[in-house]
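User: I'm curious whether this sequence folds into something compact or stays loose and floppy. Could you predict its structure so I can see for myself?
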Amino acid sequence: MPSLSNPRNTIEIIQKYHFVFQKKFGQNFLIDTHVLDKIIRAANVTREDCVLEIGPGIGTMTQYLAESAGRVVAVEIDANLIPILRETLAGYENVTILHEDILKTDIKALAETYNGGRPIKVVANLPYYITTPIIMGLLEGGAPVDNITVMVQKEVAERMQTGPGSKDYGALSLAVQYYAEPYLVANVPPNCFLPRPSVGSAVIRLTKRPKPAAEVRDAELMFRIIRASFNQRRKTLLNGLSHSAELPFSKESVAAAIEWCGFPASVRGETLSLEQFARLSDRLGEADGGGISV
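Assistant: Here's the prediction. I'll summarize afterward.
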C-alpha cells in the first residue's frame, strides 16, 4: 500500500470507498510527513513498545507507527473506516484494528491482552469535542500508560501545560499536571489536514508521573475545590468555594482555611498552584471532620 502521507494517495483511497467525512466524529486526517515524524519521535516509539492509536482514520499515522513499534492497536469508532483500514494496513502484521468507542474500551484489559500488562504508549489525532474525557480517562483510569502523545486543538494544548496566573490556566491544567508532565511538541497549521479544520492544532506529549505531582489526602475533594474555584473566574476563592453547590463548606470555614494557608483574603483560584490547592483541600477536609462523603 502506498504511503498515505501523500495527499494524492489519501484522496484516492477516500474516493475509492466513497468515504464521507463525519462531522460528529471530528474527522480531519493528517497528511504532513514532517508532523508525523515529530509525533513518532516525541512519543519515543521503539520496537519494544505497544502503541494504542485512538482514531486511526484511514491509517496514515498507523503506517508510521507500525514501522517503528513492536505492536500497534488501532481503535476506530467509525464502521465506515474499518474496511479502508483493513486495506491500508494489510501489509502490517503487527497491527490490530478494533472497531470500538475508546470511551467504552477497557484500556487496562487492552494492555494486558496486547502487552502483557506492561505500560503502553498512546498516540492519537483526537477529535476536539471529546479531547478532555479521553485524556482524563487515560490518566485517571488506572491503566498502565507510559506517555500520551496527541494532536489537539491548540488552545487546549496551551491550557494543559500552562501555570498559575495565565488566562489559559484552569481545572484542566491542574488535572493534567497532577497526573502527567506536559510538553508542547509542535504547533500544526490547518493546511496539514484533510479536510482543513477551522482552528490551529498542536501536538502535546503527556508523560505519566510515577506518582501524582502533589500529595493530598482526598484527591476527589481537591478537584471539586479546583472546579468550584474556576467556575466563575472573576469571583474570589472565598466566594467561589462558599457559594458552590458541590461543596458543603460555610463561608466562615473557607475564610479560616484560606487564612490558615497564608493566602490573601481576596485571593483568586487562578493564582494558586497545585500544591497550594492540595494544602487548602487538606485543611478544609480536616475542618469538615476528616473529609466529606460523596
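Summary: The beta strands are 29-30, 50-54, 71-76, 95-99, 120-125, 145-153, 180-188, 193-194, 201-208. Confidence is low (pLDDT under 50) at residues 289-294.
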